[in-house]
Amino acid sequence: MELGLVGLGKMGGNMRTRLREAGHTVVGFDFNPDVTDVPTLEALVEALPAPRVVWVMVPAGDPTRKTVEALADLLGEGDLVVDGGNSKYTDDQAHAELLAERGIGFVDCGVSGGVWGLQNGYALMCGGSPDDVAKVQPAFDALKPADGGFVHAGSKPGAGHFAKMVHNGIEYAMMQAYAEGWELLEAVDLVEDVPAVFDSWRTGTVIRSWLLDLLVNALEEDTHLEKLRGYADDSGEGRWTVEAAIEHAVPMHVIASSLFARFTSRQEDSPAMKAIAAMRNQFGGHAVHAGPPAGGDAG
């Protein structure tokens, strides 16, 4: 298929490559002149045959909102917009309504896989009408892993991003559990090789996971995580998950606690947060904060 891709950063750029390797034609636009295929969003739309499919991979909030509004003016009836960023599910509902007024379809798609998606494939959680999802299915099939990794979460706008939001909330909790276990092992004088303990858990145990693999990778590079400051950002989806739990009266003790732990990391140099920061950097290429130099403050 032929499609446009707006946003060619860490995720979007690799997605363009994976789609092209699968034989699809991708016209990419980005404000970075070093990576863009066309100079403007208008040029991207003009380069695509009708009916057009344009996939948006830009930061959530205003950047996505402005991009969707611009596409609403540039696209026509029968065209389709896919929001593959980390938008809040309530934004999807507003975007779907705006585009529907012009006869333009909309699919929201939560994408997981980080910087490893090019090699391993991306987990995709989408929302939208079956007909609209079918129009993008060839791209979904190219982006997902060979086995599984794709779900049409629901026909209402926002279903995909809601599923991805809960996924990220669970991710918060899993990382927090690994990080607290690492901190306790580091604190006692009984265990002599903490990285080896974590490595041993990667096979045959009920807590094995890709996140555990990534933490072992980080510990191999920095045994005591001394190069990192115990500070971890949050992307917003953990907050939205807790907000949705409150709205629907769903108990969410562990995920809420893991979100608050990240807030704690901004008040002091938490050892557990070094592990969180290391794992986020491993799977998503997220920025890390270096430790302070001797006698100085962290930069």
TrEMBL record:
Pfam families: 6PGD (PF00393), NAD_binding_2 (PF03446). The keyword Oxidoreductase applies. It comes from the Bacteria. Signal peptide: none annotated. Keywords: Gluconate utilization, Oxidoreductase. Transmembrane segments: none annotated. Residues 160-299 form the 6-phosphogluconate dehydrogenase C-terminal domain. InterPro entries: 6-PGluconate_DH-like_C_sf, 6DGDH_YqeC, 6PGD_dom2, 6PGDH_C, 6PGDH_NADP-bd, NAD(P)-bd_dom_sf, Pgluconate_DH. Belongs to the 6-phosphogluconate dehydrogenase family. This is Decarboxylating 6-phosphogluconate dehydrogenase.
